[in-house]
Amino acid sequence: MTLMEEIESLHPANFTMVMSTGIISLGADFLGWFLAAELFGFIAFIAWLILMLLCLIRIVRYPGAIKIDLTNPRMVFSYFSLVAATNIIGLLAFSSNYIYFAMGCWLVAFIAWGLLLYMAFSVLTFLSHENNVNIMHGGWLITIVGTQSLVLLGVKIAPELGEYAGYMMVEVHLLWGLGLALYGIFVTLFCYRIFFLALKPHDLSPLLWVVMGASAISANAGTLLIDAPDTLPFLLAQKPFIDGITLMIWGWATWWIPLLFLFGVWKHIVNKIPFHYDPILWSMVFPLGMYAVASARLGEVIGFPPMLWIAYLMMLIALVVWCCVFFGQFRKVSHLVAAYKRT
After folding, report:
1. How far apart are CA 40 and CA 47, in angstroms?
2. Structural domains in the chain?
3. Angle at alpha carbon of residue 303, lines to 300 and 305, rounded to 5°
4. Is 343 helix (H, G, I), strand (E, B) or coil?
5. How far, CA to CA in Å, does 13 sit from each of 3, 82, 158, 227, 293?
6. Angle between helix 34-61 and helix 80-95 axes, rounded to 10 deg
7. 57: part of which helix (H) or strand (E)?
8. Is the pTM of this model over 0.70?
9. pLDDT tens digit string along 112-129?
């Protein structure tokens, strides 16, 4: 396959590489691993720039391929990875004091999020001809990840908005609630799909981990709302509610981890499905990193050190998995470059 053919078939899940690398950078910085944080932050930024350039080329050269993706109910929700990746880059920029760039990232991500949200639900309503939920997969929950990523970055940039800080804080509280509502809808459909309909080994993809990741990022966003400055009395009154929901959603994310591990054992060991590199493997790395960050943040907010121990362990696991997936991607890119040179 030539380079242009690869661009034409570029999967939006590639942006999960940016998400995965960026969250490891943020987690490493929070845990005090500053050298690792700088390295992974640099890799995430370069990967984001390259993918955004490739997406622009794809839009100009292959608009038909974009249209096919956006009108496919199995594919359209994956584009929310672009939203989440852009917000993660914004968080990295904010931590490096590039405040206006971070604001720009939030604005771009918010516009993309709004367009994609109504596009996705329109496709699901008007263009889906399935008579059951077999079209449902874990990748749909990247919608929630994209929504809650707006909360993560929005809370950070709100104090920089001066007299409009209260407006942003109301917005991010609304987005957090909307993300929880969407999670409730999607996870109900997803659980029905995997527990009550026939499930084949190939149905169990790394996208399943997004179910846990969407819960973890919701918990992480909740900790930021708990810790945010009180700009309005109404928002202050919401904090006891946010406290309880945040702890509950973190517990829900924790419950999924052993089950997802068992799914992997059933697929690859019991049914002997071989491992191979696929862009959606990054969908497993990001939830691990986000769970580590959410655990660290929650442990800090509630003053419970054992959660920091969990965060260290999960961050190490995320790093190992990141290295394995990156090696697979490096091999694939090397083969593409070699093929391109031969042509």
Report:
1. 10
2. 3-342 (1.50.10.150)
3. 80
4. coil
5. 18, 8, 29, 32, 21
6. 140
7. helix 34-61
8. yes
9. 999 999 999 888 888 766
